[in-house]
Design goal:
This protein is mainly alpha-helical. The chain is built from one helix and no strands. The chain has a domain at 42-112. The longest helix has 112 residues, at 2-113. The relative contact order is 0.03.
């Protein structure tokens, strides 16, 4: 009986030691879980912050792209207007040259018919 009691006490001590070790392991795992949850929360917040920053940059890029498209459209319209004005000016210059040449020929013809004009 004494031997059985001693065996039971030894088993109890062994189980108590094992229980203490398991409790320490549980506490360590609980602490580790708490740290990991804190890290996860911090990462989630950073991720949300980065997502918001990316969204803001994307909206700014889209806005800039729209502005650039509008500006390019205005420049294209200005270019087209300048091209049409140049074409009209060239046509007007050609018409004026032709009119000046015709007027010169008529003046020369009139001058030739005047009395005292040198005869060729």
């Amino acid at each position: 009986m004494v031997q059985l009691t001693r065996q039971l006490q030894a088993d109890r001590s062994q189980l108590q030691s094992r229980l203490n070790a398991l409790e320490q392991e549980r506490n360590a795992l609980r602490d580790q879980l708490g740290r990991q949850q804190s890290e996860f929360e911090a990462m989630s917040q950073r991720l949300a912050h980065h997502d918001r920053a990316i969204e803001a940059v994307r909206r700014e890029a889209e806005s800039s792209q729209l502005e650039l498209r509008l500006e390019a459209s205005r420049y294209q319209a200005d270019y087209e207007q300048a091209r049409q004005n140049l074409q009209a000016s060239l046509e007007e210059a050609a018409r004026l040259r032709a009119a000046a040449a015709s007027a010169r020929e008529r003046v020369d013809a009139i001058l030739e018919r005047l009395p005292g004009a040198p005869q060729e």
